[in-house]
Amino acid sequence: MKSTLLNIALLASASLVSAELGARDCFLSNVPKLLGYNCCRNTCDIQYKDDDGNWGVENNNWCGVPYTCFNGCWSMPDYPCCQNTNFSYYTDSAGNEWGIENNNWCGIKPKTTTTTRRTTTTQYQQSTPTNTGDKCNWEEDFKSLDLNRWNLNSGGECIKVKDGMFYDSVSQSCPGSGNGGRMRTNVRYKSGKFEVRAKMPIASGLVPAIYFASTPDNTNGSQDEFDFELIGSNRMQTNLFIYGNGGREQVWNPPTDLSKDFHLYTFEWTSRSIVLKVDNQVIRTFDNPMPQQPCYFILTNWMCVGCDGWTGPADWSRQPYDFIVDYVKITDATCVE
Question: Where is the signal peptide, in residue numbers (predicted)?
């Protein structure tokens, strides 16, 4: 009976559906009510859960467990509602917005306004963030942001997941360090193959980067680190730090403008070497010395104000500058908590 709801497509492209966003009283979408299901009147007991919400039974009929059972919070009981933020990191297939507090997902309560929305063919599928694969090896397609894997350790307000893509946007309105965001893995790696399909922005002063570091914020001066960095123009810098000692910078001049399209950035890290590739072309190999400490895998985008000699003067004329990631794939990896 209920299984028909999981794969139903709502064909209403020519009609207008009035949606009172502040009154999603028991379902996450309009589909159940259009099919004749109502909210439960006398029970808060959950008998079944699916993409449309929490289901109870009254008079031998299915009904939606109302949000009043959870203080008006539509994402309960699985996730709390946000208490101190209305910033949306992710919008699911039913139009519900998700925020992040204390590095955990929370549901954003809709504003109490009335709007008219044109609906189109919609396939309903599981939209709550899920975790697949083991803790070291996985593929992130950014249909959501899996906080079992990632930690937003700087500038979370600058980061968003939208349309199956990860966005880290630099602008003067972003309060993050360097007016951008930084996201790292929850585990530290010792080896593996790491692939990132990404489109990096270019502007004077701007530094989008894909890198590894043994400390979460690069502040203790004794970190191991190796990286891809675009440095203010279409120049790719690679570097290696061992216990805080660098001085191994090399600059690669790509044959094409890396900001015009997506490219594949790869690290192949074994016990003998680390090979850095762009679109399967080897651009740098580290083999002596090698990192001595496990490292977080990190995505970041920031404006280096005052770094004129390195990246050029900060240019805000075309902000925001979006670092866009299509996917991250990690295989053959070893890691530690």
Answer: 1-19
